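Per your request, structure below.
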C-alpha cells in the first residue's frame, strides 16, 4: 500500500470511528411489504434495533398512492420489498419484472421520501446471511450518518480531440487512486469501451474527496494508443473489479496497466467470502445512496451505455475506498495473501495448453463409438422400436423407465437417484448402468473433446482457461472458461487418458505435474492433534493400507507387502478411501452410502464378515465408527473445536505459520528446529499478522450441511494456503526469473498440484518446483498443542514412459 493510500485509509478510518457511535434516527420508519412477508414480520425486530417501524402490506398500484400515504403519516423513510413499487420508480417497461435480488440495497428519493429496497423477509429465515444483509440495508435509513457519503459522480466522454487534459489530470501526483473497467464484445474478443475514475482529496466535499470519470470508445488504433498511455503513464495505484478479466484484454491490446494494486472482488472475498461479490452487490453493501445500474447495459443508446461504463469504474473506486476504511486487519491480511495470485494466474490464463486436434478427433470417434455401443445395448434391453433411440436425457422417458423398474418413488433421474435405483436389483443395475455410461460419455465428449473450445485466432489448437483466486470460500483457487469466451475449466478435466491424452506439450518441451501427497489428511492430522493419524501419514509405508488396517482390524502386513512395495488386498484398501474422506468431514451414514454405493456397502459387509442382518445404514455406521475409534481426536477435538469456534466468534481462523520453503532442508537435517518453531509460534503468528480467516454466517448447530462445510474448511483452507504460497514462489523464482524462464512454462494450479512444462534437457526444473512446494508449517491444533510439519510433494514427469518424459498430460498420471 502506497504512503498516499495509507494516509487515505487512516483518514477514512478516523471518519468512520467518529461516526460509529452516531445515534439512530428518532423518526419512525415505514416497512412497505407484501402479503408474502407477513409470516416473517416477527423476525424483522432483530434487524431494526430500537427503530420504530410501521408496517404496511397493501398492494401499490401508483406512485401517487405511495407518496400520499407517506405524507399523510409524516413518514420520510421507507424500506420495502415491493416489486410493483420498484417497477414504478424505474419506469420499467419490460415484460419481465425487475429482479428484487439485484436491487436489494438500492436507494431512491422521491419527493423527499427516502426508499431502500431489501430482499423478501422470507430470506431472514432461509438465507444464512439474510438477517445480516437486511440489518445493513435498513441502517441506511435508521443510521444514515454511519455511512460513507461519496463525492458527486461526474463523467465525460473523451476521444482523440480532448484526451490530453484528462490524461494530465490523472497523471497529477496528488491523484490517489484510479479505477479502470473495460466493456467487451464477444465477436473478435475486443474492447468496446473503457473508463477511468480518478480520486483526489478535496476538503470542500463532505467525503473529503472528489472524482472525475472518463470514458473512451475503442473504435480506432488512435484510441488504442490513448488507452495504452492512460494505462501506463498514470502512476497512481489502480483498482479494478475482478481485474484479471480486464488485464487479459489489455494484454491482447499490448496495453499493460501500471501499479495495479487493488481488486474489489478480491478485497470483498477476503472480508466476506460467503457473500456475493459482483459489483452491484458491493455498491449496495458499501454505499448508502447506491442503486443498481447494471440494467443500463441493456440499451441501444450509446450515451447510456457509456454512462453505464462510467458508473462501473466510479462504483469500483467507491467500493475500494469504503473497504479500505472498514476492512478489519484479518481481512487485509487475507487480501495481502490472495491478491499476488493474480499474476501467476494471469500468466497461466494467457498461455493455456496446446491441444492435439488429431488426437482429439480420434478420441471423439472412440468415445462416440463406445457411447453408441451402450446405446445399442440399452435399446435392445428396452425393446426400443427400430430406427429410434431411448433418450437418456428426457425427463419424461426416464420417469417412465424408473416406474417400470419399480422405482417410481424417486422424484429425480439424476445420478444420485439412479445409483439408488441400481442398488435395488441386478436388472436395475444393468439397465441404469447403461444410462449413466451414456450420459457420462456424452458429457465428456461435449465438454472436453469437442472442437470449437479452442482460442479461435492464429493458433487454433490452444485451450485457454481461467484461474480464480476468489472462487471458493476456503481460499482455494477455482477455474472456469476463459475471459475470451472460449476454453474449459482446467480443474474439472476427468482422470484417465481419454481427455488428458489430447493435451500435449509445446514443441521441444515436456509436461509434468508436482502433487502434494495426502495433503488434506496430513493437515487434518495436525489440526486435530490425533497422534494415530500423525503416525499414519508420517511413518506408514502406505497410508491407505494403514487406514484399512486401523479401520477394519486386519493386520497391515495382510494388506500391504512392505518389502515388495505391493498392495495385497486392493478391495479392502479401496474401501478405506471413501470412509477416510467422509469421516474427516463429518459425513453421515446415509451420505456415505450414496458416496460408496450400496454395492460397495455390501462388499464391505462381506469382506469384514459383519452381522448378516445388518442393514446398509448399520454397515455405514459401523465403518464410520471404526474410523473414529482409530482416530478419536478428529471428531472429539477437531470437529467439536471448529463448530465451537464458529458459534462463539463467527469466524474460522487458521492458526498456521508458513515458513520459507528453503527451511525444509534445515528441518529435515535438524529436527530440533521444530521445537524452536513450536516454542516461538505465538510470536511468529503475531508477526505474520495471523493467517487466513473466514467470516461465517451459517449456524452449524442447526444445519448439518453448515457443520460439514465448516469442518471441511480448516484442512482445505490450510492446504490451499500452502499450495497458493508455492504457486507464487514458483512464479517468482522460476517462471519469470530470466535464468529459467526460457526453459520453463507455468501452466496451471489444479487441486493439489502445479502443472508446468520444461524444455527438454532441463528436467532439473521439475525438482526445483517440488522443492518450492514443500513448505514447512507450524500450527496450533484444536488440541492447543503447537506442532510443525511439511507435506511432501512428488514429481510426475512421465519417467515411466518409453521416452522418459511426458509429451501428453495423460502420461503424468
Amino acid at each position: 500500500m502506497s504512503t498516499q493510500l495509507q494516509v487515505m485509509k487512516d483518514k477514512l478510518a478516523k471518519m468512520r470511528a467518529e461516526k460509529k457511535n452516531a445515534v439512530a434516527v428518532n423518526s419512525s420508519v415505514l416497512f412497505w411489504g407484501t402479503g408474502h412477508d407477513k409470516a416473517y414480520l416477527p423476525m424483522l425486530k432483530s434487524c431494526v434495533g430500537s427503530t420504530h417501524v410501521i408496517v404496511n402490506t397493501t398492494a401499490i398500484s401508483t406512485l401517487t398512492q405511495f407518496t400520499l400515504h407517506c405524507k399523510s403519516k409524516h413518514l420520510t423513510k421507507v424500506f420495502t420489498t415491493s416489486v410493483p413499487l420498484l417497477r414504478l420508480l424505474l419506469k420499467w417497461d419490460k415484460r419481465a419484472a425487475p429482479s428484487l435480488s439485484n436491487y436489494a440495497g438500492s436507494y431512491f428519493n422521491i419527493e423527499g421520501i427516502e426508499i431502500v429496497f431489501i430482499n423478501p423477509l422470507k430470506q431472514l429465515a432461509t438465507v444464512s446471511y439474510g438477517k445480516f444483509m437486511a440489518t445493513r440495508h435498513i441502517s441506511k435509513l435508521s443510521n444514515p450518518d454511519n455511512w460513507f457519503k461519496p463525492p458527486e459522480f461526474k463523467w465525460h466522454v473523451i476521444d482523440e480531440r480532448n484526451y490530453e487534459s484528462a490524461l494530465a489530470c490523472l497523471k497529477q501526483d496528488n491523484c490517489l487512486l484510479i479505477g479502470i473497467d473495460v466493456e467487451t464484445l464477444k465477436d473478435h474478443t475486443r474492447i468496446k469501451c473503457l473508463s477511468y475514475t480518478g480520486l483526489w482529496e478535496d476538503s470542500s466535499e463532505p467525503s473529503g474527496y472528489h472524482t472525475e470519470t472518463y470514458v473512451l470508445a475503442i473504435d480506432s488504433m488512435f484510441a488504442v494508443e490513448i488507452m495504452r498511455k492512460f494505462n501506463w503513464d498514470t502512476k497512481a495505484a489502480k483498482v479494478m473489479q475482478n481485474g484479471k478479466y480486464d488485464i487479459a484484454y489489455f494484454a491482447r491490446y499490448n496495453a499493460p496497466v501500471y501499479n495495479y494494486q487493488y481488486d474489489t472482488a478480491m478485497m470483498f472475498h477476503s472480508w466476506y467470502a460467503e457473500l456475493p461479490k459482483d459489483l452491484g452487490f458491493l455498491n449496495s453493501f458499501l454505499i448508502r445512496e447506491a442503486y443498481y445500474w447494471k440494467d443500463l447495459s441493456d440499451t441501444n443508446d450509446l450515451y447510456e451505455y457509456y454512462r453505464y461504463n462510467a458508473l462501473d469504474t466510479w462504483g469500483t473506486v467507491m467500493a475500494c475506498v469504503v473497504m479500505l476504511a472498514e476492512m478489519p486487519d484479518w481481512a487485509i491480511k487475507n487480501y495481502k495473501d490472495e491478491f499476488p495470485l493474480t499474476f501467476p494466474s494471469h500468466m497461466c490464463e494467457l498461455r493455456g495448453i496446446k491441444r492435439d486436434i488429431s488426437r482429439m478427433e480420434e478420441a471423439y470417434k472412440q468415445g462416440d463409438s463406445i457411447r453408441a455401443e451402450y446405446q445399442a445395448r440399452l435399446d435392445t434391453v428396452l425393446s426400443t422400436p427400430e430406427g429410434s433411440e431411448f433418450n437418456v436425457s428426457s425427463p419424461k422417458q426416464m420417469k417412465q423407465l424408473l416406474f417400470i423398474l419399480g422405482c417410481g418413488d424417486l422424484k429425480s433421474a439424476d445420478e444420485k437417484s439412479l445409483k439408488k435405483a441400481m442398488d435395488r436389483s441386478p436388472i436395475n443395475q444393468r439397465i441404469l448402468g447403461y444410462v449413466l455410461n451414456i450420459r457420462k460419455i456424452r458429457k465428456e465428449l461435449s465438454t472436453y473433446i469437442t472442437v470449437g473450445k479452442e482460442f479461435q485466432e492464429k493458433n487454433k489448437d490452444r485451450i485457454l482457461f481461467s484461474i480464480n483466486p476468489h472462487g471458493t470460500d476456503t481460499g482455494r483457487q477455482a477455474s472456469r472458461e476463459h475471459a475470451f469466451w472460449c476454453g474449459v475449466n482446467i480443474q474439472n478435466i476427468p482422470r484417465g487418458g481419454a481427455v488428458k491424452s489430447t493435451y500435449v506439450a509445446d514443441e521441444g518441451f515436456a509436461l509434468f505435474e508436482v502433487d502434494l501427497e495426502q495433503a488434506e489428511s496430513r493437515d487434518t492430522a495436525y489440526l486435530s492433534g490425533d497422534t494415530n493419524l500423525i503416525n499414519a501419514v508420517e511413518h506408514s509405508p502406505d497410508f491407505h493400507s494403514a487406514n484399512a488396517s486401523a479401520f477394519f482390524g486386519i493386520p497391515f502386513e495382510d494388506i500391504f507387502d512392505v518389502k515388495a512395495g505391493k498392495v495385497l488386498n486392493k478391495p479392502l484398501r479401496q474401501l478405506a478411501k471413501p470412509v477416510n474422506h467422509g469421516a474427516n468431514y463429518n459425513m453421515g451414514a446415509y451420505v456415505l452410502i450414496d458416496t460408496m454405493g450400496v454395492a460397495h456397502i455390501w462388499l464391505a459387509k462381506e469382506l469384514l464378515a459383519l452381522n448378516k442382518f445388518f442393514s446398509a445404514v448399520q454397515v455405514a455406521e459401523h465403518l464410520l465408527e471404526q474410523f473414529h475409534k482409530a482416530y478419536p481426536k478428529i471428531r472429539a477435538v477437531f470437529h467439536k473445536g471448529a463448530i465451537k469456534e464458529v458459534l462463539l466468534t463467527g469466524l474460522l481462523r487458521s492458526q498456521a505459520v508458513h515458513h520459507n520453503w528453503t527451511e525444509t532442508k534445515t528441518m529435515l537435517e535438524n529436527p530440533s528446529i521444530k521445537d524452536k518453531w513450536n516454542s516461538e509460534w505465538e510470536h511468529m503468528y503475531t508477526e505474520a499478522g495471523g493467517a487466513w480467516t473466514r467470516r461465517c454466517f451459517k449456524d452449524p448447530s442447526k444445519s448439518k450441511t453448515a457443520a460439514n462445510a465448516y469442518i471441511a474448511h480448516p484442512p482445505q483452507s490450510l492446504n490451499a494456503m500452502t499450495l497458493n504460497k508455492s504457486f507464487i514462489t514458483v512464479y517468482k523464482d522460476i517462471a519469470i526469473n530470466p535464468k529459467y524462464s526460457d526453459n520453463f512454462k507455468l501452466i496451471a494450479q489444479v487441486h493439489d498440484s502445479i502443472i508446468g512444462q520444461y524444455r527438454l534437457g532441463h528436467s532439473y526444473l521439475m525438482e526445483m518446483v517440488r522443492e518450492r512446494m514443500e513448505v514447512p508449517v507450524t500450527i496450533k491444533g484444536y488440541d492447543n498443542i503447537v506442532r510443525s510439519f511439511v507435506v511432501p510433494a512428488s514429481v510426475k514427469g512421465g519417467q515411466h514412459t518409453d521416452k522418459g518424459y511426458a509429451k501428453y498430460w495423460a502420461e503424468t498420471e
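The radius of gyration is 29 Å.

Regards,
D.
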